[in-house]
Amino acid sequence: MSNPSQPSGPATGLGDLYRAVWRWHFYAGLLVLPFLMTLSITGAAYVFRDEIDNWYHADFKRVQAQETQRVSASTLVALAVDAVPGAAVKYTDPADPGASAEVTVATDSGKVAVYVNPYNGLVLGAMPDQTTLMWTMRHLHSLKYFGTWTRYLIEIAAGWSILLVGTGLYLWWPRGQGGGVVSVRGTAQRRVFWRDLHAVTGLGVGFFIVFLAVTGMPWSGVWGGKVNEWANGNNFGYPDGVRVNVPMSGQKLDDIARTSWSLEQARIPESPVPGGGGQPITLDDAVAEFDRLGLHPGYAVGLPAGPAGVFSGSVYPDDLDRQRVVHLDQYSGKPLLDMSYADYGPLGRWLEWGINTHMGQTFGLLNQVLLLAACAAIMLLAISAAVMWWKRRPAGSLGVPPLPRNRRVFRGLIAILAVGGLIFPLVGASLLVMLALDIAYVRIGRRAREAAA
C-alpha cells in the first residue's frame, strides 16, 4: 500500500511524518514479505487439505463405499499390527462411507499410519505418521521442519505484518491525487503502474493480512504459549473439569492426537483401577459408546496406556459445535470427561473461532475461496513491491527511503511501535533491533559520504 514517490509537501510536518512512515514501511516489507510469500503458498494449499490429500493419497485414503457391514475396529487394529509390527496407539474411524480406517502404530523407528479398508480388512498401505502431502504443507507453513525456534519467527513476522498494513494504509491515504486510490494508472513499463497496483491491492487485502496475522498468533512461541497458559489457568480456556474435577495423569491430550489450540495443555484423566485389576472393555465396546454418545464420524480413539489409561475419543470437524473430546473409563466404559466447544471459556471460544476461520473451515467453500483469493493478492502485493523497489532503487544502493529532516517525528512513531511491542514482546524486541540497525546504517552512510568528500 506504499507510495514510493517522495511527498510534494514541505520538508517538515506532513512531509517528514510521511518519510518516517515510508521508511518503516520499507523495513517492514523487507522483513516480512519473504515470510508472507511462503505462508501464502503453503496456506492456500492447506485450506484445501482434505480435497488434496484424498486425491493425492487416494490409494490409501479412499475405498469403494459398500452396503455390507464394516469390519470391527479391533479386527482392523489387529490386521494393521500384523502388517506393521508394533503397539497400536490410536484408531481413527472412517470420516465417510468412502474413507479408509487409519491405525497409528508405534514402532521402534517411530509412529506409522496404517490404512485399512473397513469393509474387507485389506491393508491398503502405510507411511510414517503425519507425512501426507498436506501434513508436509502444514509443517512448511509453520516452519516446523526448521526447529521449534521458528515459532518465534512466525510471531515476529505476524507483528510486523500488522505494522506493514498500518503504515501502508497511511501511505495510501488520498492526498489530492487523481489516481492510485482505487484505480491503476499507466502500463506495466511505468513505475506508477506498479505503485498503484501495490496500493490498490494492499487496500483490498490489508484486512485479511491483519486477520490472518492475529489468528495465527496462537501458534507463536512466546505470545501464543503465554496466552494459552493464562487462558487455561484462569478458566477462560478449557473447562474447569479438565483441571480439578477428575483424577488426571501427567499425559496431555496433544501427545496422543491432534487437538484444538484450547486443549493443547489439557491433561488426560485416569481410569480408577478396580481391586484385583478388573477386566477392561474392548476397543469395539469403546467405539460403540462413542457412537452412542454421537461423536462426529472421523473421530480418533487414543488407546489406553497402562492400567490407569483411558479410551480418548476426539474429533474436530469444520463445524465448531461438533468438536468434542470424550474420555472413557477403560473398565466401566463410562465417560470420565465430556468436553465440547460450548464448554470452552470466552477467550477459548473466540480464539478457536479465529483459528477455525484461519484454516478455511468456518464458512465452508466460501471460506476456502476467500482465503485462496487473499493468498493470491498477497503474492501480487509482494511481487509488485519487489518490481517497484527495483525500478526506483539508486544504483549501488539498497534504496532505503530518505530520513525525515526533523528527527522528532520519529518519537511519536516509535511510541506507537512501543505499544505494539508491549503487547507482543518478541515483536518489540525485533523493533529495537531494527531501530539499532537503522541508526548504524545512517552513521555508516554518513561516514562514507564524509570520506568521499
TrEMBL record:
The lineage of its organism: Bacteria, Pseudomonadati, Pseudomonadota, Alphaproteobacteria, Rhodobacterales. The keyword Transmembrane helix applies. It holds the Pfam family PepSY. InterPro entries: PepSY (IPR025711), PepSY-ass_TM (IPR005625). It comes from the Bacteria. The chain crosses the membrane at residues 24-48, 152-173, 193-214, 369-390, 410-437. The keyword Methyltransferase does not apply. Keywords: Membrane, Transmembrane, Transmembrane helix. This is PepSY domain-containing protein.
